[in-house]
Write a structure and sequence with these properties.
The chain is α+β, with helices and mostly antiparallel strands and about 575 residues long. It has twelve helices and 21 strands. Strands 3-2-1-6-5-4 form a six-stranded antiparallel sheet, sandwiched between helices. Strands 7-16-15-12-13 form a five-stranded antiparallel sheet, with helices on one face. Strands 8-9-10-11-14 form a five-stranded antiparallel sheet, with helices on one face. The chain is elongated, with a radius of gyration of 35 Å.
Length: about 575
């Protein structure tokens, strides 16, 4: 019998509200929670949901047999038990189902159409889903008070829904079967959407975490600590990153950046930009040149990719900080006296805009100073603009001036996040902090030498004098020999004064800098050659050695292990 117009209108209104609620679910649990809300008690008195285990991702079909796992059971307060019969509470709904090949349930899942509980040969399917006790006479309500509705996605079975009504409630009608079909279809689409969203978010999150530094270096003269917090679950992963890269001369490059957008593409672009920055850092270019070349490379990746970046270089020997900015929120400097200052470095335009001139700014970085680099997720939200957020960060840092030097950077990072990002976040947050300790002046020897035939001898005498002052007589012979070879090579190609620097940390490091871009390479010397063996000696005698191109020349360096003092032998 066809429904009256009023009843038909009510049913359509119910479906409209129900499908809207199901469609707005952002994840799997929320989607199925909305289904249960829509179905019970307005449409049925109990609902049993099984899902494919594991839930299929993508369009590829699996040859593995279908397995259904119980997800949830819900019922109206009036229902006396999950299966609605007096003694049904003693019977458990089947937790894990593997449909019999060519059985009624398997055919039902393949067809993707709902069926009444009194359909031909439906009993085995009901028993598979609700347990063997469900097939016993009198266990389930009589008549059309049960519907099995497969959750069928575009290419895969996502699960099943069983809907039941009490014996004192009207039976399901043919129109109700159509309603059940609509509920199942929208739920299956929602489940598939949630699975795909979760898969993409997981891949993007893994991609981003893989591209971020697994650990920070431990350069002499600076302490480092970092944090990365992804956005809340309702947002996709972004392109925030940070890095700390050791440079020649015990300097360190400190970088923080943010690719605009939230997607797997943003994370991938972030990884490419970070790799480019690492390559440019290896050339030991000043910050503004690094940003210039990064901007050029970003344009080759595509005009749609925009990023901000702040690049700084700290020199622990000169206690100076050199910094350039490409549209990024400003760094904050916490000085030893407890004053926090927002560094007014010209911001420039974001990376990827093109044709922008960046500027490096040099400033003092006294011992005990702490630098805080971050992305906009820390200082900007729907309710707070960037300027207000930056000032809140500065104020918070200044409020910690009492004993901030005694507090570890790890605790400082935690306090910053707790104060400025305590709740759910709309954006990712990358945070990098650096506390400058400097390099002890009495552990540095530094000279500028004019390139002439006697320079190598002068370098040997200076080296001998410093090593004796440091009590490193055991390294005199090997160090003098290697210094002589490296300086001789520099004199051969240099047109301006060369520099010789000796650094004492846990190792003895020697650096020789000249203005020639030609990096030395080991080569096999012929028997009659007078030279060509210097680098072989350095390679044999040094613990480590290398050569790095600079923006105006190169630096050749080597390191030796400092001998430990023998233990005191008492008489």
């Amino acid at each position: 019998m066809p429904l009256a117009p009023a009843a038909q209108t009510d049913r359509l209104q119910y479906l409209d509200v129900a499908t809207r609620r199901i469609a707005r679910g952002m994840d799997l649990d929320e989607t199925l929670r909305e289904l249960r809300w829509a179905a019970v008690p307005a449409f049925a008195d109990a609902i049993v949901i099984h899902l494919h285990d594991p839930l299929p991702v993508g369009d590829e079909k699996s040859s593995a047999p279908v397995v259904l796992q119980l997800h949830s059971v819900d019922r109206a307060p009036e229902a006396r038990s999950a299966l609605l019969m007096p003694h049904a509470e003693d019977a458990d709904v089947t937790d894990r189902v593997q449909p019999v090949v060519d059985g009624r349930l398997a055919k039902l899942l393949l067809a993707g159409q709902p069926a009444f509980g009194d359909a031909d040969a439906i009993g085995p399917a009901v028993a598979e889903l609700l347990g063997p006790a469900a097939s016993a006479p009198g266990t389930l309500p009589q008549g059309r008070r049960l519907i099995i509705a497969p959750l069928h996605g575009r290419h895969h079975v996502m699960g099943t829904v069983v809907l039941l009504r009490r014996p004192d409630r009207a039976v399901f009608t043919g129109d109700d079967l159509l309603v059940a079909s609509q509920l199942a279809t929208h739920t299956a689409i929602g489940v598939q959407k949630a699975v795909m969203y979760g898969h993409e978010a997981s891949v993007a999150d893994t991609l981003q975490h893989t591209m971020l530094p697994s650990s920070l270096p431990e350069p002499t003269g600076v302490q480092l600590a970092s944090r990365y917090l992804p956005a809340s679950k309702t947002a996709q992963v972004g392109g925030d990153w940070y890095d700390a890269i050791p440079l020649p001369g015990n300097r360190v490059a400190l970088i923080v950046g943010d690719v605009m957008g939230h997607s797997m593409t943003s994370a991938a672009i972030m990884g490419q930009l970070r790799t480019i920055v690492q390559t440019l850092a290896g050339l030991d270019l000043p910050p503004h040149e690094v940003l210039h070349h990064l901007d050029e490379q970003a344009q080759r990746l595509g005009s749609d990719h925009i990023a901000t970046c702040l690049y700084a270089i700290y020199d622990p020997i000169s206690h100076r900080l050199l910094m350039a900015n490409a549209g990024h929120p400003p760094a904050v400097l916490l000085r030893p006296n407890g004053q926090a200052e927002v560094l007014r470095v010209p911001p420039g335009a974001p990376i990827g805009v093109g044709g922008v001139v960046f500027e490096s700014v040099e400033m003092p970085a006294p011992t005990g100073t702490t630098l805080v680099l971050y992305t906009d997720g820390l200082v900007e939200s729907r309710d707070v603009d960037v300027g207000t957020g930056v000032e809140a960060l500065r104020t918070h840092l200044q409020s910690t001036r009492h004993g901030h030097r005694l507090s570890s950077l790890e605790r400082l990072c935690d306090r910053i996040l707790a104060a400025l990002a305590p709740g759910p976040r709309d954006d990712d947050i990358a945070l990098l902090t650096a506390r400058f300790e400097g390099f002890p002046p009495d552990s540095v020897g530094y000279w500028h030498l004019d390139p002439h035939p006697l320079t190598a001898g002068q370098a040997r005498r200076l080296t001998r004098r410093v090593l004796r002052r440091w009590g490193l007589d055991a390294l005199l012979d090997t160090t003098e020999l290697m210094v002589s070879e490296v300086v001789t090579n520099a004199v051969r190609y240099a047109s301006r004064p060369i520099s010789l620097r000796l650094l004492r940390t846990d190792v003895l490091r020697c650096e020789v800098t000249d203005d020639s871009p030609q990096v030395p390479r080991m080569r096999e010397a012929e028997p009659g050659d007078e030279g060509g063996r210097g680098l072989f000696l350095v390679d044999r005698l040094a613990q480590r050695w290398g050569a790095t191109r600079l923006s105006a020349g190169k630096v050749v360096w080597f390191e030796q292990r400092i001998p430990k003092e023998p233990p005191y032998q008492g008489s």
